[in-house]
Specification:
Blueprint: H1 2-29, H2 34-67, H3 74-117, H4 123-152, H5 154-169, H6 174-216
Helix pairs in contact: 2-3, 2-6, 3-4, 3-5, 4-6, 5-6
Amino acid sequence: MKRLITSSLIAATLLLTGCQTAYYGAMEKVGYHKRDIMVDRVKAAKESQEDAQKEFSSALEEMQALLNHNGGNLEKAYNKAKDEYESAQSAADDVSNRINKVEDVAEALFDEWQTEIAEISKASLRRNSETKLKETRRSYEQLIKTMRRAESKMPPILTAMKDNMLYLKHNLNAQAIGAIKGEFASLQTDISGLIKEMNKSINESTRFIEALENAKG
């Protein structure tokens, strides 16, 4: 059984890889190269992080409104906070998916670049291309490092939010709300830290995009 599962995973991986290779090949035929795809995917990852910043901030605001709730419909306030938590979770998933796509095209681009360098017969041109590859790869590694660092701060925040939502779901009263107020300051600090890390990643994305586009021009 274990061997069957492993074989299935390998087959799925090969199928996905094949699909990506076919996609890149098809795009190249219409003049849309891996470098162009990489620029677009970094832009998309950057935009997803900007969206995530907004969603996490909104989730924090709604939770604060719930904790400060004084009279009125408590369940309505809870539902608003829950909806914002779910939006933050969706935004976090989108960030991860887009970073994965950046990594996928980066690997394809660098492999292609390295292979084509070996085909350059003139030594000076080959050395120049090798230098540019190293510079681009180094810049990319810094980019993906900042992206992943920001990404890693989301799961603990989402876990804390989920814990609070689940606790309040069956204990929706003033006493239960009071019980989780002590965790709110920590959540504020964590989200502030997340937004700070995302700003670093967004700025790094901008620099990387500009460098690739300038190199192309």
